[in-house]
Structure prediction request, 154 residues.
Amino acid sequence: MSLSCPACTKELTSHKDDVIDLEIDSCFFCHGLWFDRNELRRFFTAPKLYNKFRLPNHNFKVKIKDAPEQRLCARCEQTALVPVKLSQVEVDECPSCKGIWLDSGEISRLIDLYEEGKLKGKSETAKQIKKGHFDKGPIGQVSKTVALAFKMLF
Ligand SMILES: [Zn+2]
Ligand SMILES: [Zn+2]
Prediction:
């Protein structure tokens, strides 16, 4: 079953990363990205997808024609997405399936915010970006061990 773009209702295209067997969906027309439950977290450890969509040339602003009055979940279809504000970036989350919709360029802006220490809040998006970064980590397993040691200390 193909998914529909929450922002412009066109059909989404799926992209596979066989390194960790992850498949995410993007809109060819408005360049937004759809992440099913926990896929945003896994995106950070999927080198092919990360390198493809993190690139600045995916950051151009796209004017969306025929935008629906309400953005609906790509997966649940009838569920309205809930806008969530993270600093200057407004993302859309599905309260039912925990899917996340990011408009064109938002993934890069969110990663920048995280790296600048400005990604706050307990939203699903913020949580998954933090966890994803942690999984990816500059030193992978070592950083996990260090974090565990810290948890035991406090
Ligand atoms: Zn679209
Ligand atoms: Zn949903």
